[in-house]
Design goal:
alpha+beta
């Protein structure tokens, strides 16, 4: 009779081990998915910030830029792996401060199962009067 209890215990240990392995795999997949989204989020934030910083001075004067402030924002956002969604960066020749707001988006393929869009908005202020004062 003792041999029947031992074999039954071995079977339950096997089920427990398989359940533990499956749970570990599910947790690793979840952590990987969260990591992919966080990496994409950081990339989009950097792209939006770079776009805003690049576009802000171009609203006053091109400073060697080849295009408009929107073109500069789009160029920097693209170089950071994202797409420009919106740029509030109207030209302004006055010496007053201005704030440029850029929104960028990137798509992330989460575990090869689902595609998500991650979006970020950043702002940069430019004060042309600082050009007159100097360092």
């Amino acid at each position: 009779m003792r041999s029947r209890h031992i074999s039954a215990d071995r079977g339950s240990v096997t089920v427990f081990a398989i359940a533990t392995i499956v749970l570990a795999l599910v947790l690793m997949a979840g952590a990987t998915a969260v990591g992919q989204v966080l990496v994409a989020r950081n990339r989009v934030i950097a792209a939006a910030e770079a776009g805003a910083l690049a576009a802000a001075p171009v609203t006053f004067r091109p400073f060697g830029a080849t295009g408009s402030a929107i073109d500069e924002a789009a160029r920097l956002v693209r170089s950071n792996g994202a797409t420009l969604v919106r740029c509030d960066c109207a030209p302004d020749r006055r010496y007053g401060p201005r704030t440029v707001v850029v929104t960028a988006r990137a798509d992330v393929d989460v575990l090869g199962l689902r595609e998500m869009s991650v979006e970020a908005t950043a702002a940069a202020e430019f004060r042309p009067v600082a050009l007159l004062v100097g360092p």
